[in-house]
Amino acid sequence: MANKKLSDSLLNYPPSRSKNVFTDAWHFLIHSPKINTLVKTDTEEKRQEYNQRVMQRVGVQIDKNRVLNIHQIGVNAPVSYVFNELLNWNGDSTCWPNHVARVERINNQLEQIRILPFGWSKYPFRFMKSFFGLHIIPLFYLKSIRFKQVPDPFDFDNARYLLYECSGGYPIGIFAMYVRSSIEDLGETASSQLVFAVSFNFYGNEKQRSKLVNKTWEAVHNRVTANVLNRIKQLSEWRVEKMKRQLEYL
Question: pTM of the prediction?
């Protein structure tokens, strides 16, 4: 009985559900994430080396995709549990700001997804063909390049990933959601490591128009991504703890 009470006291709780645009802004932008997930390196050379290792693992050529942002978080849940949360990515996820950037699966398939700003599938006024010159509908369109749902027999780290080609207002390039077992030699102590990698430009094209706007958007991207990863971690660990508690009471 004592062990059961201890389990109850340590039980995690799932992320609270966002109800509207304002709670999206609070949960994903204003709220400071518990764990800072942006991967930082001492030098640009080390940054590029790290990016290259991740991109080679998912089969993307680094010279064609300059990865600007990689986020990583440790999750105390099996790789399969974490990856299952990625497979459940849709417009009802508690881990994504669905009121600000609604997820719409095309033909209910994970292979093609539209992200719609505020749920708009078209601009709110008839005369609008863009938003201050920016074509943000869809905010971005994801088309799968490759899904790896079952690790290869020779994989030492149980890696699985979803890899997309992106177009639209934001981002440009690739988007990868990647999860693997932790590697003790790297000082990783959690059961799994979840990585989000994205190559993007605010304007949706290769030309750099405004460093200030891009830096601002990059900062927004980093804050939202960090909160998304923290919430996936929270949800995955809660599911594992809930299952353990149920087994204790059998």
Answer: 0.85
